[in-house]
Structure prediction request, 640 residues.
Amino acid sequence: MNIRHLTFRLLQVHVEVVRRGSVSEAARRLHLTQPTVSQQLKRLREAVGEPLLATRQGRLEPTEAGLELYRASREVLGRFDDFADYLGALRGGRRGHFSIALVNTAQYVLPRLLGPFNQAYPEVEVTVHIGNRQQMLRRFDRQEDDLYVFSHPPSLAHALAGRFLRNPLVMVVPRDHPATREPGWRLHRLLGERLLLREPGSATRMLTERWLLEQGQATGPTMQMASNEAIRVGVASGLGLAILSEHVLPPEHPDLVTLPVPGLPIESHWQFIARRDRRLAHSALGFLRFARDHLDDCVEARFLCNELPELLAGLEAVEA
Amino acid sequence: MNIRHLTFRLLQVHVEVVRRGSVSEAARRLHLTQPTVSQQLKRLREAVGEPLLATRQGRLEPTEAGLELYRASREVLGRFDDFADYLGALRGGRRGHFSIALVNTAQYVLPRLLGPFNQAYPEVEVTVHIGNRQQMLRRFDRQEDDLYVFSHPPSLAHALAGRFLRNPLVMVVPRDHPATREPGWRLHRLLGERLLLREPGSATRMLTERWLLEQGQATGPTMQMASNEAIRVGVASGLGLAILSEHVLPPEHPDLVTLPVPGLPIESHWQFIARRDRRLAHSALGFLRFARDHLDDCVEARFLCNELPELLAGLEAVEA
DNA sequence: GAGAAGTATAGATGTTAATCAATGGATAGC
DNA sequence: GCTATCCATTGATTAACATCTATACTTCTC
Prediction:
């Protein structure tokens, strides 16, 4: 038997003929003419190298080989029906896998979206990679993930972006800091104090440094700490001041105060980035649609900034 | 996904590429050129409607759809390997089914062949139909069986025959019959007695009547009984005489005597008959080969008459 | 034994598949 | 950054498929 000459179509025809016990009837059901079916059977018989059907009292009955082929064909066609279902689920975004890469700061918010998404699409697996901006840029360059979250996107030559969340950076000081009691405190005094900074490559640090430059003020000593957590705890313990994302602050923070500094908060946004040159996994697309539709249920209204409709429109244009 | 454009060949190629992680390597293994494989992959991708492979760190890895297709393909190809095995067994006569139709008298001998055959080929199923000559002729006309056993074959226009066993018909009388003590008994006296006959249509009866005619003797009363068993018991109980196949007599028969009548035994033979216009099941062919090779182990030497080599040669000529 | 229904074959045609050699563009390793 | 390797594409050719209409052949049925 030469499997290379078998096609699924031939198997379908064989199954139909065995079921109906008649070439003509099978032809009608398959919307073919009778000679076509006869010829397909002939080819199938030649491919298998055995007679597959025998006429017994006016009805076509499969031979032993024909019966076994019928069984095999049904299994095989059934298996591909299953595969088609799988594909359908994949395409509908109801199943599959995608990965998303976050800058550190975003990890405080994204679970609010991922949790409900997972409830709604339990068969979709999501891998989340977390790191600082530098690391995320590397992943982006290597196209390692389906989606990225940046506050300031890299070159958009090969990517599409859509904002989804405000990310205001505010000045945090210890609760007992003199400026909290002294209405007339001066910025240059404040900036003379020690500033706790994220490592270079962090977006928070970049924005902070740019803002400091804009202020045209001399700055005091700094201390570098590699995580938002560490900085927050550092400020609370009187180690210095810091400019941090509001999302980093816990809802209740008895040891900290955000200081209403003129020129602050630094307005930045998080955005979803998808590469334009790489086909997005259906499930990732499904996640973006979910985010678009449920963002306002998942995040506080004051942070809302839903530009995802535009992003999705852009992505769908790329598809076509 | 349009299943009509899928071929087993494409699946084989996909499986090989996924296994090797390389188009070129797969091409080498499949004895194809690299562009051929690339193009097959393209067709497959188009048939499925999804990307199936993605290059990840220098190696081709299947996408989710590609992985699922790989799984489906392996199952399906495996299923057809099984089918090929089944076909092999069928063709080798190691499995399958055939039916054989016997005239009544032959049922005393055929089990001697069928028993050992079943030991040697436990996966072959045999259906045995038993009846008198008339009934067997009907079955033969309708081509209902693979093999037939006749003592006198029907027209051989559409069939091939091969003798395999002598079937001598002898005169049986009760043990206490006068002729057994009286050396000078006369045939015409004997034939004046009641003769137990099989029903019309029976081969034994046909041969008996022809022999009686040849003797040119007037015959006495007759009684008709529908089975060899009944006749044997009838003779033993003094109901009359009979001409019976030696095979019908049990090894020990205290109530019966076979009388050495001049002109007896009537020499006849059993033969296997196979239709020439119907392809013989591989298993039936296997049975004939088995009979050819093991006949002398299965029957008494004095009945041996193995013309099966000729029959098989004839059948193989028909195949070609 | 004539008719009806079913099946097989033949001839024709447009489509698709299978395959190759040649070539251009990506990528990884040194 | 150069080079070898790999992959995709193009263009071409031959074979195979899918399908039809028309016709011939079987085989039940009445």
Q: What stands out?
A: Chain B has three domains: 3-91, 96-165+268-319, 169-259. The mean pLDDT of chain B is 84. Residues 5, 7, 9, 32-33, 35-36, 39-40, 43, 55, 57-58 of chain B lie near DNA strand C (CB under 10 Å from a C1'). The domain at 96-165+268-319 of chain B is CATH 3.40.190.10 (D-Maltodextrin-Binding Protein; domain 2).
